[in-house]
Specification:
eight-stranded mixed β-sheet; single chain; 15% helix; 8 strands; Nucleoside Triphosphate Pyrophosphohydrolase
Length: 135
């Protein structure tokens, strides 16, 4: 079996104590209808920070500043394995302009995430950034 490996960045975008989550369009082949953080495959040899800044702008129309980087986490999906590098990003506004890959968005607190059908590596991403509460 051939396994394909990609590197992606996940932007955990925060503004005034809330995180941006976006629902993947039902037309998407993977995780359609699931909620996720803005996430981008690393497309060029630029920095991880540069890739996430560009990806958040493309997916959400937001200018962000990277605050810190977390440890990489893995997302496995059939023959694909994604190494996802989470980056905590500060947004200067909440004026989201979605791309065609998404059909809804919300600004939520950490406690509100359980009410959404999130992609299964969400907690790993938050843990890697030190955002999950212990016990």
């Amino acid at each position: 079996m051939t396994v394909f490996i990609d590197i992606a960045v996940a932007g955990v975008v925060v503004n005034d104590g809330k995180m941006l989550i976006m629902r993947r369009s039902k037309s998407k082949s993977h995780y359609a209808g699931s909620w996720d953080f803005p996430c981008e495959r690393v497309k060029d040899e630029g920095s991880l920070s540069g890739n996430v800044v560009r990806g958040v702008m493309e997916e959400a129309g937001l200018a962000v500043e990277v605050v810190r980087r977390g440890s990489p986490v893995t997302l496995e999906d059939g023959d694909w394995r994604f190494v996802v590098v989470p980056l905590l990003c500060d947004a200067g506004s909440r004026d989201v302009r979605m791309d065609r890959e998404h059909d809804d968005f919300r600004w939520v607190s950490l406690d509100e995430l359980d009410g959404f059908d999130m992609i299964h590596n969400t907690r790993d991403i938050l843990n890697a950034l030190g955002l999950m509460r212990k016990g």
